[in-house]
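User: For a reading group we're discussing how well predicted structures match intuition. Take Ammonia monooxygenase. Before you show the prediction, I'll give you the sequence so everyone sees exactly what went in.
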Amino acid sequence: MPLPALPTRADLTGWVVTVVASTVAALGFDLLALPAAWVSGPMLATAALALCGVRVVMPQQLRQPVLLLLGIAMGAAVTPAVVAELPRWPWTLLGVILTLPLVMTALMGYYRKLSGADRITAFMASVPGSLGFVLALAIEVKADVRQVALVHAIRLFLLVLILPVVVTMGGAMATVAPAAARLSHDPGQIAVLIGASLALGGVLHLCRMPSSLMVGGMIGSAVLHGTGLSHATLPQPVLSGCLLVLGAMIGTRFAGTPPRQLLQMLPTAVGGTLIAAVLATGLAALVGWLTGFGFGQMVMAYAPGGLEAMVFVAMALGYDPAFVGGHHLFRVLFTAFALPLVVRVMFPELRTGKKTARTEDPPGG
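Assistant: Thanks. Here is the predicted 3D structure of Ammonia monooxygenase, as structure tokens, for the group to look at:
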């Protein structure tokens, strides 16, 4: 097995630039008391640098350890009070299922009309979140992968920016997570917590669970904290660093994107994001009113963005990450199961090997 290639000087320079810019932006956003400062600040900084042609690098090797640690932090929020709320979840999970066709139907029609995308490309671009799975399926069904990826990236970018503002302006800002006083930073307990979460994440990875390490960290931590076997939590500087890495990774998705292409897609993507956000927020408010869950927490649980980003924005805002993460994970699993079946029904021509009419992907798309 060949050894991994060592980073080049350009990679190291890009990494230093990314870390410095992300840290300065996060501290600046935090100083201004902006919502989710340690995610949105680095995201904006790295995206701006990338679009200006500056090389920005955030090693992909950091992604899984960061997701594991953030999953552990999510699970640490589980308390007996949270467990007592579980019987109310089926109704809010049903709302997640209802949100999917509502949002996707509206977005598919919108993308078809405004951008002239072919049916399969518009369909794949309309799926909320699940980017890795969506891109894999988009390649298989011959959709315009570059267009799908860009729409998803812009949508995630905008949601991370606007959702904290929406829930804050709506007076729905959460308080500091409950039960924080009972948690400790004992190194021994933290080591046990990480070990158990890593083991469970490895098992879930073998079972092909999406975001397996994060889910393993969340479940392992939730069980240990919910049963009172652990009171450990990660120090705040560690959590802030993890959020910084996540925000920077979102921003670096725009690396290599020609500004002209971004400007061409931006109006359509912004409009689609607003449509998805309004529909999801409206249904979240309705289901929250019927079930008694708070507006801000429901908005974050129904937000049409990626699992990791939406959960960690919710965490940064002080909402119950177990609730938000559980609903987004349910949507990811439901999407992974249902989407291939829906594609077969809606696009029977794909089964006969016919291609939908569209412009071919550019090389590397």
